[in-house]
């Protein structure tokens, strides 16, 4: 069963609203996709809570520096 949805997110780089296609059929995922507005990489982290059968999506620019 495919768990596919379209979500509107805010790009962490340019602040524009962009549409992201989320496919939760593979469970928890960690991937990058490009912003359709500014072409910078957006880091997507999809977590699956099997106990409550829900998904959480975290989005960031993944450009933090650690010193």
UniProtKB/TrEMBL annotation:
Q: Which InterPro entries match?
A: UCP037225, zinc_ribbon_bacterial
- Origin: domain of life: Bacteria
What's this protein's name?
Answer: CPXCG motif-containing cysteine-rich protein
């Amino acid at each position: 069963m495919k768990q596919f949805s379209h979500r509107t997110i805010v790009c962490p780089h340019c602040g524009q609203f962009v549409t992201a296609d989320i496919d939760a059929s593979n469970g928890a995922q960690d991937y990058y996709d490009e912003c359709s507005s500014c072409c910078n990489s957006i880091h997507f982290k999809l977590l699956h809570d099997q106990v409550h059968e829900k998904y959480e999506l975290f989005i960031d620019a993944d450009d933090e520096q650690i010193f």
